[in-house]
Each structure stands twice: as structure tokens, then as C-alpha cells.
Amino acid sequence: MELASSTSKLPRMYDVLINFSGEDIQRKFVSHLDSALSAVGFTTFLHHPNALNQTHIQQPILNLSRVAIVVFTKTYSQSAWCLHQLQQIIRWQETYCRHLLPVYYEIQPSDVRLQMGDFGKAFKATAHQTFSGQQLAHAMSKWSHALTKAANFFGWDESNYRSDAELVDKIVKTVLNLPVLSATKFPVGLQSRMEDLTRAIKNKSTEVCRIAICGQGGSGKITLAKAIYHQIHGTFTEKSFIEEIRQISGIKGGLRLLEQILSDVLKTKVEIDSFEMGRRMIEERLSGKRVLIVLDDVPPFDATLLWECRHWYGGGSVIIITTTHENLLMISQADSIFQVELMNTDESLELLSWHAFREAKPKEDYLFLAERVVAYCGGLPLALEVIGSYLYERTKREWNRVLLQLKKIPELIKFDQILKISFDGLCNQMEKDLFLDLCCSFVGKGRAYVTKILNGCGIEADSGIRVLIERSLIRVNKNNKLGMHSLLRQMGRKIIGEIIDEDMKLAILFSSPGTRVIQGWPSTRDSPVGVRDSSRLLKLAADSKFLSAKLRWISLRGFSSEYLPNHFYLHDAIVIDLKHSFLRLVWKEPQVLTWLKVLNLSHSKYLIETPDFSGLPSLEQLILEDCPRLREVHQSIGCLSNLILLNLKDCTSLSNLPGEIYKLKCLKTLILSGCSKIDLMDIDIVGMKSFMTTIAENTAMKQLPFTIVSPKSIGYISLRGLEGLSHNLFPFIIRSRMSPTMNPVSYIHSFMHMEDNNWDDISPLLSSLENLRSVSV
């Protein structure tokens, strides 16, 4: 496990500290919890009055713990020792932003939060027995604050579970799923900003709670939303968290947003054709369900439907959006509006210090310089993070040079120019070029996939990406996908806009001597575009005759012609992306594309046949998902000796596969879901030695073909949705292959939600399957 703190440079001693009182509770519950946590690999420390004959927790043990679980019982407030320790735990949590998880065992959470009932009476009695005079009031105030603060965290009430075993299982799963850092690397001031939000959610615990988090760009809206989501998501079964929605705004974007929300909440792939269909699905599928939906950077149009559908959600549902001040109508429809305040001077100084010095306070001889930098950043967390990361391990001379740059920035363009200081300070042109490539083309793409493409263009992508992460210019999100703050992305595009002409509009990545790669958009120009060696971006028309350069990644999504013209120079391409095209044929004459690794023709509704593959020796991924008119896969597919992934999902007109497909020695994954005319009896994969995964749901089959489950290398097979298929047909095969610890449904869900089923997304999943043998029916 990783140490979840800003002091990660220190060695970890314990993963979980369990604080409690009483031998009875230890026998009944804590020992069970301790054993369960230890069984999954956590190092635990049991902390209770009988274990230590001292007032305070051993400080290194607490400071180097990742999680503190506090078990509140009826006797907890009878112990001055426990109340002292809770004060210390709260101070630890506030200082290091670690995870504090309360458990209420045979006591109501409100009794702890408000010091009511027998718990409150014991609390007052303990204080009077321990202190007197002015000390009494002071101690009671401190203890009361600690109890209230601890009870404001989301935790578990034992009365809501059928047994201790069920409660322990829930706690262990939550601890396992805690992110190393919930929302940001150094969450300075985050806890105080979360408390009002948490209180608002609890106050509407029986209703649908709609919250709008608003503030200027870079003020920390999404960080706050992430923190709340991470704190409460464990109590929701149906949930969705989506970042950077504005990038897919508009009508189609709104539909995709609804699809993503429904897919997340329902845990299955959902496709909708209209907002009315989306509204109907919300009413039918989510009616009465307690859901958690968090949406970042929402345009007004995209949030309207969610607001309107609030009457269908179940009580206790929470909908959180982040947005800017301009969206006044959408903000006014929320039940609670939270304005994210900019950081004060002390918070700003601490955040800058964590990034610049990896400590909570600046080094003494840098204090004056740090205070001056903070004054220029205006309390904006993003600016403090980016500048602080740039100043990490810099000399005083370099700090002073940055201060001179900050002083010269005009007030009106202050924020953009502060961010640009970090970009200008990158060590070489390769790193600058890489940042521009990423901000235009690769946000949301898998890190391994991006590295493969850029390495193929002669760029040292691995080291460059590491530098950009260290500088806080890019980040790695869940599923190892690259992300970037929208303001940094805007800055990058503005830099590109200063390099290129405004009327060039196409989407192609370019690589040739003296150039790098970048993405563009469709154009109206037919004439060739001249490209200087220093160009970052090649933008040209889809029908331009200039396409004769060394193109590495060609992205022509929605291409409107029936086939690619002969004058398109494709011979150096590594990736050809033709999603949502109008192609009937890919090209009229066979092509020799020696370097091509990925051919994506998914959602090409008019495609009737695949190209001849004999000239594509390096092809690794062939993606033909949702090509409903595709009738034939060319027999030359047998020549693809490097093919790893073949995705034919929802090719509903495809009735058979060529026999040559079984010559593919490297094929690991075959996806045939929704190919309703393909009979699996025709499939013979015995000779495919590398084969690991088959997903063939909802295909035509009258009986089970033994050949599909016989290869010893098979790691996962899904045959769900096949009418008339009985588990009794092959009980021996199922029992011999099924791992007792494996959950096939979770793996299916993972596959169905991977973008384009890229091999770089699938391979980590298959790595976990290599030693497993399972059949899902």
C-alpha cells in the first residue's frame, strides 16, 4: 500500500490505526475487523486505553498511519484517555489530510455529534471528574470539537447492517478502495471547504440534494468535488463521476454525457439516440434509486435534464455540478450553492511550499521570496501548484528571475501568463513540443497508447511525460489516462494559435524532419498548406492533395467520402482513426502500410467489407465495432501475424468468419458480442496458442462448441445472453476453470467500458487474468 499523505517521503509503519475503548467491543467487533484488514495485507495498530499506559498516542505511529478508524461505543466518552486521543487524531487528520473513518457501534451518530443522551451525560461526567475551574470549560470545548468533527465524516452505523461480518466487509472494501490521495496531492485547506458541503448533504439525507459548486477557473472547484465524491461514494451503489464535460458539450456531447452517466450508474453499456430516450431511461431505470452523480465543468444545456429529472431519483440522492459564475440560471436551480473562495495568504504559502519544498513551510532563507510569489498568484490553487512545481529545487537566483517575470505581467492577462512561465521554463524544445501535442491530441488517452504513438514519431515520450507530470502541467487520471486542467489546455492551444494561420482547420498529426506531431480540425481550404520545419501543426482539407508528408497518426473521424482517395499518403502511418466515417470501402486498391499498428473503423455505418490486409504486416489492433452493414472480413486477415485485438462487436450483418482467422498466432482478444448471425459452432480456436479472451455475448448458437473452451491459454470467456444455453451442458469445464475468487461480471463491465477496446486498455486487465481460467454464462 502507498502512504496516503503529503509526508510520503517518510517510511510507513502502519496502514490502519484502530482507536476504541473496552474489552467487550474488542472481543465482539474490533478483533474481527483487525483480522479482516490483516488478511488483505494491511498492517494494523490497535490503540485503546488498556494497551498503552500513557496519555498520548506515540506520535510516529499516528503520523505514519494512513487511515484512522475510530470505533464509537456507549463507553467511549467515559474515558478521558479516549477523548484525549481523539483530539490528537483530529489534529493529525487536519495536519496531514489523512482518512478518518468513524464507526458507531450500538450508539447513534447524532449522540456522538451533539453529545446527547447517555453518551452526552457520560461526556460531561468525565470532564468534571478530570478537570476543574477554567480548565474544565477549555477541555470540554476541545473534546466537544473533536467529537463533532469526527462525527461529521461519513462512516458506518452498525444498526444499518445485518451482522458484524457484513459491517466488517464493508469497512475493509472501503479501506481497500481509498485513493492514495482523495482529490489532490497536497490538499491544503480542503477539509474546511468540505465541511459545509458535507453538512448540506446530511441535512437533506432523505431528499434529493442538488449542489452547485461555482468559482473562477483554477480556484479548486473540481478538487472539492472530487474530495466529496471520494468521501461519500462508498455509501452509494449507483454512482457516476465525470470530469471536463465542456470538452464534449453541444447536442451530441449532451447525449454522450447522458450515455456515460447511465452506463456508470447501471453498470452496463448504454446507447441513446435522443434526449427523450435519455429522459425515459432515467425515469424507468433510475426511478426511486439513491444515486450519486458528480459532473465537472457543466454547460447549462447538459445539466438541465438532470435537474428536471430530480423527482424520479430516490431519497438521499446527491447531484453535484461544478461550473463558472456565468451559468446563473443553472446555479439558481440548485438547492445549495457553494462559492469556492480563493486561498488566504497562509493557505497559499503552505500550498506553494508543499510543491516547491515538499514541506508545509518554506525554508527560512526562502520565506521572503515565497511570500512575494504568493502575492502575485492571487490565492489561485492552480497557479500556486504550477509555479510551485516549477520552482522545486531552484536556486534563489532562479526564484528572483521568476519574480521579475511575474512583476511584468499585466493584470488583465495575469493568470494565463503565470501558467506560461512553467511552459517557457521547460528544459528543451522536445518537452515544449510534447506538451502541445498532449494538450491538442491526447487528453483522455491511455498513457501507454500515447507513448507508443509518440515514440513511433521519434519523440522520447516516457521521459518527457514524467517531466510534465512533475511540473504539474499534466496528470495521470484513473485507468492510467492522461489529463490536463482546462486552463492549461487553453494556454497550450493559444500558444499553437500564435504559430499557425487561423484558417487552417484539419485534424492530422504530422511528423517529418524538424517537426513533431499535433492535431487539427476540418477545413474549407482545398489548396496545399506550406509547412516550415518549425511548424507544430499541419491543418489541411480532407480532400487536399498535399497529403504526401510522413503522416504518423491520421485522425479523420466522420470522414464523408465512400473511400480514401489515392492521393492520401498513408505509408508512414502508425494509427489510422476513421471512427464514425461514411466509408463503404476503406480504399479501392490494396495498400502497403508497413508501420500501421492500429486501424479503427468503428461506428462506420455504411462499411460493407474490410480492406485487404496483406500489406499491413505490423497491425496489432483491428477495431470494427458497430459496423452494421459489414458482411465480410477479408480472408487476408490470416496474414496479420502481429494482430492482438480483433473487435467485431455489433457487426450484425456478419454471418461468418474466414477460416484464415484461426492462423492468427498472436491474437489474444476476440470480441463478437452482438454478432447475432455468427454461430459459434463455426469457430475453431484450438490452434490459437496466445488466445486469452473471448467475449461472444448475444450471438447465434444452438449448442456449445467445445473448441471455444478447450485451448489451455484461455483466460476469460463470456457467453452470456445465449438463449437455450444450459449450465448443465458443460459443468465439468466450468468448475475446472472458474476461480473461486473471481467475479466475471466485474471483468465484463471493465471490457465494455474501455474506449475503443484499445489493447493498451485491455492488456492490464488481461495481466490479472493470465493465471485464471473462467467461463461466464
From TrEMBL:
From the UniProt record, which GO molecular function terms apply? ADP binding
Tell me, which GO biological process terms does this entry list?
defense response; signal transduction
Q: TIR domain location, by residue?
A: 12-179
Pfam short name (any one): NB-ARC
Which keywords are on file for this protein? Leucine-rich repeat, Plant defense, Repeat
- Give the source's domain of life in one word: Eukaryota
Which InterPro entries does this one have?
Apaf_helical, Disease_R_plants, LRR_dom_sf, NB-ARC, P-loop_NTPase, TIR_dom, Toll_tir_struct_dom_sf, WH_DNA-bd_sf
- Write out the coiled-coil annotation as residue ranges: none
Task: List the protein's name.
Answer: TIR domain-containing protein
Q: What lineage does UniProt assign to this protein's organism?
A: Eukaryota, Viridiplantae, Streptophyta, Embryophyta, Tracheophyta
